[in-house]
Amino acid sequence: MKKLNLIQEKTKIDVRSLFEFSKVVNQDVSIEFVINFLLLTLMGKLVCNRAIVFLKNENEEFYIKLAKGVEFKENSPKFKFIKNNLKLFYTSAIRETKNTFIKYLKRNGIQFVIPLVYRSNVLGYVGLGRFQERRISKEEENYLNSIVNIAASAIQQKSNREELLRLNRELDKKIHQMNTLFDLSKEFASILDKEKLLKLFTLSLMGQIGISRYGIFLKEKGLMKVMSSRLPENIDCEFLNGICNFRKPTLTTNISEPSIRKYLMKIGIQVIVPMALRDEVRGILMLGEKMNKSDYSDSDLEFLYSLGNVAIISLENTRLFQEAIEKQRMEDELLIAKEIQQGLLPKSVPEHKCLDISAVNISSKIVGGDYYDVIRLTEDSFVFAIADVSGKGTPASLLMASIHAMFHTLIPLGMPLSELVKRMNDLIYDNTSNDRFITFFCGILDVKTKSFKYVNAGHNLPILLKGNGNIVRLDKGGVLLGIAKENITYEEGFVNLVSGDLLYIFTDGVTEAMNSENVEFGENRLLKILKDYKALPSKEIQNIIIDSLKNYCGENQSDDITMLIVKIL
After folding, report:
1. How many Cβ atoms are within 10 Å of 248's Cβ, its own excluded?
2. CATH number of the domain located at residue range(s) 2-163 in this protein
3. What is the pLDDT of residues 469-493, one digit of tens each?
4. What's the whole-model pTM score?
């Protein structure tokens, strides 16, 4: 009876102890506190001088969380497999020598181990060691199982709570990052200056991630170039081009190529972030260690990738905007140049009772390299000129302006046409590059004598359609202007004109105009028009030729078109 009373009294004490233990560990305390309180309770209750707790990590490995009477370090070994993992077991009962976990327990004086189990899931293990090696009693085992189960439940609940808090923190961080990205994208969109945009980008990196070492590299004309950097040394362009194959944020430690990994670690880079636009890597972001020394999380990498892509889109928009401004500026300047160039051409052709003159110039671009002129020398004397500068666009138009200036300067001097053309050739040769040349034709028509003297410097042969239908080609002259200077002379040609003759002077943009099948308009079509419509006024003949060219070529005008028509009445 007395023994029964003692057992009942001891049971009451154990129950009270378990109740008190449960009350303490289920308060708002940490996992570390629960484990520490568990070990202190067990060591006191079971008279142990050694105690250790192993917890399971995300890799299904068991690591030392806390130990008393056993030395352990932060980098203590982790164990993958533990035998008999659902029941209390004695280390002395296991004879296996290859089990590193058992060897570790024995070496550190741990005599028996009990699992921390919550709903059949092993959370960890509690190992204990006494001064004297003896088995625990049935009552002690029951107590041990009960208190460890209470501790396991408390650890799981607190682990769940910590995980929930962690997820909430991650969610808050995600929301903050999304708000930051939204705000930054609006700020980026409002900036159209590349330097200001890069400055905001770098400030965002330093502020949001907390870094002081970084490098921003963008691809320009196929090569990576430094845009902004706080790295200890310049990065070689070839090296940058070699890491353009990274398609997602990558930690330096995870880079498989040893030479790249080693170099990046040498200059203190911890992560590489590609900046992509339409699946093409247009930039690289290199980031060093965080100032708070923490590791880059997956969330950080996702944020950096999104931020980098927002930045590269804004930088591309800025580039396109600047290009549009520059294009508009150039177009405005070209329109002014066109206005100036049009001012160099005759606003109207001179009139004479014995002549019917028309002329037109149609540029394939805003400005062109064709030139024509009709100048009245006397009441009955006129100069006709036409030129075609090699090339198109602005360079050709500048040379065309030079031709105009030279011709208008030399004509009043009254020198022979052959000398005039020679001087123009020498001036062009001396003042232009070797790849620039000009075809040129000029002639003086005397209405009284109905004579026409001319010089053809490599130009398309003008057509003199006689009143009787015969065709004369005006081929006397010499080589193109600007092609050479020494030993260059020009021959002067001469023809008599009669009433009913038609003189057609033109540039190669007329006969070499092509249709969709790349077939030229040709001289045969031109001659047929001239013969068929010879009786019409010169202006109408001109319009018929232009309409025929448009019908033949469509809207695809590849060269400047210039023509002069002179009918002898």
Report:
1. 11
2. 3.30.450.40
3. 899 999 999 999 988 888 899 999 9
4. 0.56
